[in-house]
From TrEMBL:
Organism per entry: Desulforamulus profundi
InterPro entries in the cross-refs: Cro/C1-type_HTH (IPR001387), LD-transpeptidase (IPR050979), LD_TPept_cat_dom (IPR005490), LysM (IPR018392), LysM_dom_sf (IPR036779), Transpep_catalytic_dom (IPR038063)
Family: Belongs to the YkuD family.
Protein name: Uncharacterized protein
Segments forming domain HTH cro/C1-type: 154-170
Amino acid sequence: MTDAKMYRAGIELFINPQTRQLSVYVGGQLSKTYPVGVGKSSTPTPAGDYKVVNKVTNPGGVLGSRWMGLNIPGGNYGIHGTNNPSSIGKLVSLGCIRMHNQNAEELFPQVPVGTPVRIAAVPGYNQKGGAAPKPAPGSGPPLDHTVHVVRPGDTLWKIAREYNVSLDALLAANPLADPDRLEVGQTIYIPK
């Protein structure tokens, strides 16, 4: 079995620092989403494709009740519980992904070593060295649009069905170089 087939057949994790959510996909289908805390702007959670390389039960302290280490170069990063539940949903860590302990405990047995983990790129955030620049006036979504952040397995057709809009309306709202190629973490505007 190729890596690509294994990736689609098993469990994979997707972390979106912008929405501060960790999504669990099984066989390419969304299974569950958890709120998380991620790196602050001065120590952002690095974007990229990684794997779980080790697991520890009850590491304690700031790491809470579970640790799932990632193979992110240049540091000791992981998905873990926390002794500070109020930090969930915020930009607070040194780059790790924090979860409520009960959520980390629920996820831990489902995630074998080697599980793929994708961390979405958030422009201005995942690059080290400061906060994201303020957007220029008028550069955000039109007021009559909703924002969808592309998840693994998304296509324009799936997104159109999810929001009950036509494919033509999506294409008109999004100037895409190649509508057949979406990137995880990419923003798609959904007309209302």
